[in-house]
Specification:
- There is one protein chain.
- With 270 residues, the chain is of the alpha/beta class.
- The chain has one domain: Aminopeptidase (3-Layer(aba) Sandwich).
- The protein has six helices and eight strands.
- It has helices at 49-52, 55-58, 113-142, 180-191, 208-213, 243-262, and strands at residues 2-3, 7-10, 16-19, 62-66, 145-153, 168-171, 198-200, 220-228.
- It has an eight-stranded mixed sheet.
- Strand 1 and strand 2 (7-10) form a beta hairpin.
Protein backbone atom coordinates (compact mmCIF):
# COMPACT_ATOMS: atom_id res chain seq x y z
CA UNK A 1 0.00 0.00 0.00
CA UNK A 2 1.24 3.49 -0.88
CA UNK A 3 0.13 5.81 1.92
CA UNK A 4 0.66 9.43 0.88
CA UNK A 5 -0.64 12.51 2.72
CA UNK A 6 -2.82 13.22 -0.33
CA UNK A 7 -4.07 9.73 -1.22
CA UNK A 8 -3.88 6.03 -0.54
CA UNK A 9 -3.06 3.53 -3.28
CA UNK A 10 -3.53 -0.16 -2.66
CA UNK A 11 -1.95 -2.08 -5.51
CA UNK A 12 -3.32 -5.37 -6.81
CA UNK A 13 -2.32 -7.93 -9.39
CA UNK A 14 -5.49 -7.79 -11.54
CA UNK A 15 -5.54 -5.47 -14.59
CA UNK A 16 -8.13 -3.12 -13.00
CA UNK A 17 -7.64 0.13 -11.09
CA UNK A 18 -10.65 1.62 -9.28
CA UNK A 19 -10.39 5.38 -8.70
CA UNK A 20 -12.84 7.30 -6.49
CA UNK A 21 -11.57 10.88 -6.95
CA UNK A 22 -14.32 12.65 -4.99
CA UNK A 23 -14.31 10.47 -1.86
CA UNK A 24 -11.98 12.76 0.11
CA UNK A 25 -13.32 14.98 2.88
CA UNK A 26 -10.34 16.87 4.33
CA UNK A 27 -9.99 20.63 4.01
CA UNK A 28 -6.62 22.16 5.01
CA UNK A 29 -6.79 24.19 8.21
CA UNK A 30 -5.54 27.34 6.47
CA UNK A 31 -8.44 27.23 4.02
CA UNK A 32 -11.27 26.57 6.46
CA UNK A 33 -11.79 30.20 7.68
CA UNK A 34 -12.32 31.36 4.08
CA UNK A 35 -15.20 28.96 3.46
CA UNK A 36 -18.83 29.48 4.42
CA UNK A 37 -20.06 27.26 7.28
CA UNK A 38 -22.18 25.14 4.93
CA UNK A 39 -19.17 24.43 2.73
CA UNK A 40 -17.33 22.92 5.69
CA UNK A 41 -19.91 20.12 5.66
CA UNK A 42 -18.48 19.02 2.25
CA UNK A 43 -21.94 17.86 1.21
CA UNK A 44 -20.92 17.16 -2.40
CA UNK A 45 -18.54 14.40 -1.33
CA UNK A 46 -18.96 11.01 -3.01
CA UNK A 47 -19.72 9.52 0.37
CA UNK A 48 -18.59 6.04 1.52
CA UNK A 49 -17.20 4.92 -1.84
CA UNK A 50 -13.95 3.62 -0.37
CA UNK A 51 -16.07 1.28 1.73
CA UNK A 52 -18.59 0.44 -1.00
CA UNK A 53 -15.82 -0.52 -3.43
CA UNK A 54 -13.78 -2.30 -0.79
CA UNK A 55 -14.72 -5.65 -2.32
CA UNK A 56 -12.50 -4.97 -5.34
CA UNK A 57 -9.44 -5.56 -3.16
CA UNK A 58 -10.57 -9.14 -2.64
CA UNK A 59 -10.55 -9.56 -6.43
CA UNK A 60 -6.95 -8.35 -6.65
CA UNK A 61 -7.80 -4.93 -8.07
CA UNK A 62 -6.02 -1.68 -7.22
CA UNK A 63 -7.86 1.09 -5.35
CA UNK A 64 -6.90 4.79 -5.39
CA UNK A 65 -8.56 7.11 -2.85
CA UNK A 66 -7.83 10.83 -2.27
CA UNK A 67 -7.88 12.49 1.13
CA UNK A 68 -8.74 16.09 0.18
CA UNK A 69 -12.26 17.30 -0.53
CA UNK A 70 -13.26 18.21 -4.06
CA UNK A 71 -13.90 21.71 -2.69
CA UNK A 72 -10.11 22.10 -2.43
CA UNK A 73 -9.32 20.69 -5.87
CA UNK A 74 -11.49 18.69 -8.25
CA UNK A 75 -9.39 15.77 -9.43
CA UNK A 76 -11.88 15.01 -12.20
CA UNK A 77 -11.57 18.36 -13.96
CA UNK A 78 -9.04 19.25 -16.68
CA UNK A 79 -5.97 21.20 -15.59
CA UNK A 80 -6.94 23.97 -18.03
CA UNK A 81 -10.25 24.30 -16.09
CA UNK A 82 -12.35 24.14 -19.25
CA UNK A 83 -16.04 23.23 -18.71
CA UNK A 84 -16.79 19.51 -18.73
CA UNK A 85 -20.30 20.12 -20.05
CA UNK A 86 -20.39 23.30 -22.19
CA UNK A 87 -23.66 25.21 -22.09
CA UNK A 88 -24.66 23.86 -18.67
CA UNK A 89 -23.87 24.85 -15.10
CA UNK A 90 -20.51 23.37 -14.10
CA UNK A 91 -18.23 23.34 -11.08
CA UNK A 92 -14.58 24.02 -11.81
CA UNK A 93 -11.09 22.87 -10.93
CA UNK A 94 -11.19 24.83 -7.65
CA UNK A 95 -14.96 25.11 -7.20
CA UNK A 96 -16.49 28.34 -5.95
CA UNK A 97 -20.05 26.99 -5.94
CA UNK A 98 -21.61 23.86 -4.51
CA UNK A 99 -23.86 21.57 -6.54
CA UNK A 100 -26.78 23.57 -5.14
CA UNK A 101 -25.40 26.67 -6.83
CA UNK A 102 -24.63 28.31 -3.49
CA UNK A 103 -21.30 30.06 -2.92
CA UNK A 104 -18.62 28.06 -1.10
CA UNK A 105 -16.41 31.01 -0.12
CA UNK A 106 -16.99 34.03 2.03
CA UNK A 107 -17.13 37.27 0.05
CA UNK A 108 -13.75 38.17 -1.44
CA UNK A 109 -12.10 34.89 -0.38
CA UNK A 110 -12.31 32.97 -3.67
CA UNK A 111 -9.00 31.60 -4.97
CA UNK A 112 -7.26 33.67 -7.61
CA UNK A 113 -5.28 32.31 -10.57
CA UNK A 114 -1.98 31.95 -8.70
CA UNK A 115 -3.61 29.95 -5.91
CA UNK A 116 -5.41 27.72 -8.39
CA UNK A 117 -2.07 27.01 -10.10
CA UNK A 118 -0.50 26.19 -6.73
CA UNK A 119 -3.29 23.76 -5.82
CA UNK A 120 -2.99 22.17 -9.24
CA UNK A 121 0.71 21.51 -8.71
CA UNK A 122 0.52 20.49 -5.05
CA UNK A 123 -2.73 18.52 -4.92
CA UNK A 124 -4.03 17.62 -8.40
CA UNK A 125 -0.78 16.54 -10.03
CA UNK A 126 0.31 13.98 -7.39
CA UNK A 127 -3.00 12.13 -7.66
CA UNK A 128 -2.76 11.97 -11.43
CA UNK A 129 0.87 10.90 -11.27
CA UNK A 130 -0.19 8.00 -9.04
CA UNK A 131 -3.14 7.15 -11.30
CA UNK A 132 -1.12 7.16 -14.50
CA UNK A 133 1.76 5.33 -12.87
CA UNK A 134 -0.54 2.54 -11.73
CA UNK A 135 -2.13 2.21 -15.17
CA UNK A 136 1.34 1.93 -16.71
CA UNK A 137 2.27 -0.74 -14.15
CA UNK A 138 -0.86 -2.75 -14.90
CA UNK A 139 -0.36 -2.49 -18.65
CA UNK A 140 3.21 -3.70 -18.25
CA UNK A 141 1.93 -6.71 -16.31
CA UNK A 142 -1.02 -7.62 -18.52
CA UNK A 143 -0.54 -5.91 -21.86
CA UNK A 144 -3.56 -3.68 -21.15
CA UNK A 145 -5.08 -1.79 -18.20
CA UNK A 146 -8.65 -1.13 -17.06
CA UNK A 147 -9.85 1.93 -15.16
CA UNK A 148 -13.14 2.16 -13.28
CA UNK A 149 -13.85 5.73 -12.15
CA UNK A 150 -16.41 5.55 -9.33
CA UNK A 151 -18.68 8.46 -8.40
CA UNK A 152 -21.93 9.18 -6.58
CA UNK A 153 -24.31 12.13 -6.39
CA UNK A 154 -27.69 13.27 -5.11
CA UNK A 155 -30.50 12.12 -7.35
CA UNK A 156 -31.93 15.65 -7.67
CA UNK A 157 -29.81 18.79 -8.12
CA UNK A 158 -31.81 21.44 -10.02
CA UNK A 159 -28.82 23.76 -10.48
CA UNK A 160 -27.00 21.03 -12.45
CA UNK A 161 -29.73 19.04 -14.20
CA UNK A 162 -33.48 18.74 -14.65
CA UNK A 163 -35.58 16.10 -12.97
CA UNK A 164 -34.33 12.94 -11.30
CA UNK A 165 -31.21 11.09 -12.40
CA UNK A 166 -31.26 7.40 -13.29
CA UNK A 167 -29.92 5.28 -10.43
CA UNK A 168 -26.80 4.20 -12.31
CA UNK A 169 -25.11 6.25 -15.03
CA UNK A 170 -22.40 4.60 -17.13
CA UNK A 171 -20.08 6.94 -19.00
CA UNK A 172 -17.68 6.02 -21.77
CA UNK A 173 -17.17 9.43 -23.45
CA UNK A 174 -19.74 8.45 -26.08
CA UNK A 175 -17.99 5.11 -26.67
CA UNK A 176 -14.56 6.72 -26.99
CA UNK A 177 -12.89 5.70 -23.73
CA UNK A 178 -13.05 1.89 -23.98
CA UNK A 179 -13.45 -0.92 -26.46
CA UNK A 180 -16.98 -1.11 -27.96
CA UNK A 181 -17.39 -4.72 -26.81
CA UNK A 182 -16.56 -3.80 -23.22
CA UNK A 183 -19.11 -0.98 -23.30
CA UNK A 184 -21.69 -3.35 -24.76
CA UNK A 185 -21.12 -5.95 -22.05
CA UNK A 186 -21.38 -3.43 -19.23
CA UNK A 187 -24.53 -1.88 -20.71
CA UNK A 188 -26.07 -5.34 -21.08
CA UNK A 189 -25.33 -6.11 -17.44
CA UNK A 190 -27.09 -2.92 -16.37
CA UNK A 191 -30.06 -3.63 -18.62
CA UNK A 192 -30.42 -7.15 -17.25
CA UNK A 193 -31.02 -5.83 -13.74
CA UNK A 194 -34.50 -4.31 -13.49
CA UNK A 195 -34.04 -3.23 -9.87
CA UNK A 196 -32.23 -0.04 -10.87
CA UNK A 197 -32.83 2.52 -13.59
CA UNK A 198 -29.80 3.29 -15.71
CA UNK A 199 -28.38 5.35 -18.55
CA UNK A 200 -25.37 4.90 -20.81
CA UNK A 201 -23.59 8.08 -21.94
CA UNK A 202 -26.53 10.19 -20.84
CA UNK A 203 -26.08 13.22 -18.58
CA UNK A 204 -22.81 11.76 -17.32
CA UNK A 205 -20.51 10.69 -20.13
CA UNK A 206 -17.37 10.52 -18.01
CA UNK A 207 -15.31 13.36 -16.61
CA UNK A 208 -11.71 14.29 -17.23
CA UNK A 209 -10.31 11.06 -15.82
CA UNK A 210 -12.39 8.83 -18.08
CA UNK A 211 -11.85 11.02 -21.14
CA UNK A 212 -8.12 11.54 -20.59
CA UNK A 213 -7.07 8.03 -19.56
CA UNK A 214 -9.47 6.15 -21.79
CA UNK A 215 -7.05 5.34 -24.63
CA UNK A 216 -8.22 2.06 -26.17
CA UNK A 217 -5.63 2.15 -28.94
CA UNK A 218 -2.90 2.31 -26.29
CA UNK A 219 -4.44 -0.50 -24.24
CA UNK A 220 -6.08 1.69 -21.58
CA UNK A 221 -9.84 1.19 -21.25
CA UNK A 222 -11.72 3.55 -18.91
CA UNK A 223 -15.35 3.80 -17.78
CA UNK A 224 -17.16 5.93 -15.23
CA UNK A 225 -20.10 4.95 -13.05
CA UNK A 226 -22.08 7.74 -11.42
CA UNK A 227 -24.48 6.30 -8.82
CA UNK A 228 -27.26 8.18 -7.07
CA UNK A 229 -26.87 8.44 -3.32
CA UNK A 230 -30.31 6.87 -3.05
CA UNK A 231 -28.94 3.53 -4.26
CA UNK A 232 -26.89 2.99 -1.11
CA UNK A 233 -27.21 5.82 1.44
CA UNK A 234 -29.29 8.66 2.87
CA UNK A 235 -29.38 11.67 0.57
CA UNK A 236 -29.45 14.25 3.37
CA UNK A 237 -27.08 15.03 6.27
CA UNK A 238 -25.52 13.27 8.06
CA UNK A 239 -25.31 11.13 4.86
CA UNK A 240 -25.28 7.79 6.63
CA UNK A 241 -24.88 4.64 4.63
CA UNK A 242 -28.08 2.60 4.35
CA UNK A 243 -26.99 -1.00 4.78
CA UNK A 244 -30.13 -2.47 3.23
CA UNK A 245 -29.79 -0.32 0.11
CA UNK A 246 -26.06 -0.95 -0.10
CA UNK A 247 -26.54 -4.71 0.19
CA UNK A 248 -29.09 -4.56 -2.62
CA UNK A 249 -26.64 -2.65 -4.82
CA UNK A 250 -23.47 -4.63 -4.15
CA UNK A 251 -24.35 -7.77 -6.17
CA UNK A 252 -24.77 -5.63 -9.29
CA UNK A 253 -21.54 -3.74 -8.63
CA UNK A 254 -19.75 -7.06 -8.22
CA UNK A 255 -21.14 -8.26 -11.55
CA UNK A 256 -20.05 -5.07 -13.30
CA UNK A 257 -16.53 -5.35 -11.91
CA UNK A 258 -16.55 -9.05 -12.79
CA UNK A 259 -17.55 -8.17 -16.35
CA UNK A 260 -14.49 -5.95 -16.60
CA UNK A 261 -12.19 -8.61 -15.20
CA UNK A 262 -13.63 -11.30 -17.50
CA UNK A 263 -13.09 -9.19 -20.61
CA UNK A 264 -9.94 -9.45 -22.70
CA UNK A 265 -8.86 -7.13 -25.54
CA UNK A 266 -8.28 -10.11 -27.81
CA UNK A 267 -11.82 -11.38 -27.26
CA UNK A 268 -10.74 -14.29 -25.08
CA UNK A 269 -12.14 -15.14 -21.66
CA UNK A 270 -10.47 -14.91 -18.30
Amino acid sequence: MQDDPLYSLRRGSAPLLVSVPHAGTRIPDALRPRLRPQALQVEDTDWHLESVYGFVLEAGCSLLVPRLSRYVIDLNRPPQDTPMYPGANNTGLCPTRAFSGEALYRDGEEPEAAEVAQRLACYWQPYHDALEGELRRLRALHGYALLWDGHSIRSQLPWLFDGVLPDLNLGTADAGSCAPELRRRLAAELAAHDGFSHAVDGRFKGGYITRHYGRPRQGWHAVQLEMCFSTYMQETPPFRIDEARRDRLLPLLRRLIGTLLDWRPDGGAA
